[in-house]
Amino acid sequence: MSNKKRLPVRVAKARYREPTNPAYAGNPLILALPPCVEPIRMKKLLTVTVPSFEFEDLSLSEREGRIKELRNLRIMSTQYLDFYQSVYNLIESGYVQRNPLKVDVIAWSYDIADPSVSLDELEQPSLINGLKETTSGAMFLTGFSGNGKSTISEHILFNLMPQVLEHNYENFNELQIVYLKVDFPHDAKRPELIYRIAEELDWVLSKTSYGDPLYRKTMLNNKGEYKAINRMLELLMTQLNRHHVGLLVVDEFQTLLISSLRYRQEVIQMFDDISNSLYTPLLKIGTPDALGLFEKNSRHKRRQGEVFELKPFTDEHTRERILKALYEFQPLRKIIQRTKEIDELLFNLSGGVPDYLIGLWQAVLVEAIRSGKERISKQLIMQVFRKRYPLLRYAIQCINTGKKGPFADLITVQQYFDNERVDSALKYLHQSVQKMDVTGKAAEDIEKDILDSLEGMVLKPAQYKKLEKIKESLANKKNGLSGPQTLEHK
């Protein structure tokens, strides 16, 4: 099993509540879900502030290490409350047709596990109360990179729901996995994605009394290669159904954009099959441009589901709360005085995107210590921003002016570079540059920002070749219009 960093697995004994809907009666998978948390309580549970610390006896590296704790800062906004409500409803509604005590559901489960029964031949359980919906729900969580899509989804799921419930309801004493979360593989291939889901299922079950079932190994043949894709999908659906998985979360969905049209269609069809056959809701997480994957096909558009877009922290109430939390953290020898000018500069440079607002402030604090000045100034903030986030200048302009387009894609590229995913960054960047309507000096400036981002990195030959293609595209755009040209003039 891979050594990827994972959140702990939370396992709880099922406690059954009274049904709030007649369709939920007698269904342990729904009745064992914890009650939906009220907004005020949720805000208290999930808000995380980072207190100041005594630093007189700390070394420089120790002080910098403590400053990095700012990354743990979490401010709950109204949009996060709304997202939690939507996810809770998605999980709850997905279990309506899957009562494991119903005879026809049991028979349906046997058919899913029977390789001789094709997916098209599956006879779905009788609809509850004549409900017309015959497939599960879906949701697409989107927003610019850095708005906290991945972080907040994990934060909410981990803190407000046990991942595994141990049942003792009438004759039902099985484990229920409320959610599974995986990242899209970098190559966007179905076999690797299916393997990752099976591997994550193994990981979760290995932390329970069930033990590691080694489902990942069922995906491989005797040579250690992936089995035929149809067989892998059959095995996966059997495994997801056996353990009553309530929500499948697939992050980094924009990775699918750098694959071929064929692979895109195959992956989307795979999710259709899982939804249609299992009633398992899907939560897809990706940048706004990934929504274009669903626009040309009305059937796939339906599978895209409800779109929930996380916005930057621009409303006055949330803005004030995060700024207050930042200023209460005082790791410098000279007290950081809050000023309106610095507040506005921080939001103008970060666009109110939480990851970049907090990351910029953190980098400024570190630089203030390293310089020996131990104080904050507008000049220092600008200096750190240019060095730390070279690709964000034009992207943040788009956010601040409400524009969406390929310039905003630079935020995703910057995040890939930050996470040292150079291959993904260059592939994504190549596509974005080709779409950019930019000429003259603007193209020249973007090329410089790209090279600044790569400063100090040693590229492989294939990566260098991709970079040369990007530079060539920008050179063509730069020569497309004579005379100086900036983004502001476009």
Overview of the structural elements:
By secondary structure, the chain is of the alpha/beta class. The protein folds into three domains: 11-33 and 95-309, P-loop containing nucleotide triphosphate hydrolases (Rossmann fold), CATH 3.40.50.300; 316-388, Helicase, Ruva Protein, domain 3; 405-489, no CATH class. It is 48% helix and 6% strand. The chain has helices spanning 28-31, 39-46, 60-67, 78-94, 103-113, 149-160, 190-206, 215-218, 229-242, 261-278, 298-304, 316-328, 340-350, 354-370, 378-388, 392-400, 409-418, 422-435, 440-453, 461-478; strands at 11-13, 138-142, 164-166, 175-177, 180-183, 248-251, 282-285, 306-309. The strands form two sheets. Strands 5-6-7-2-8 form a five-stranded parallel β-sheet, sandwiched between helices. The protein has a three-stranded mixed β-sheet with strand order 1-3-4, with no helix packed on it. Helix 3 (60-67) packs antiparallel against helix 14 (354-370) and helix 7 (190-206) packs parallel to helix 9.
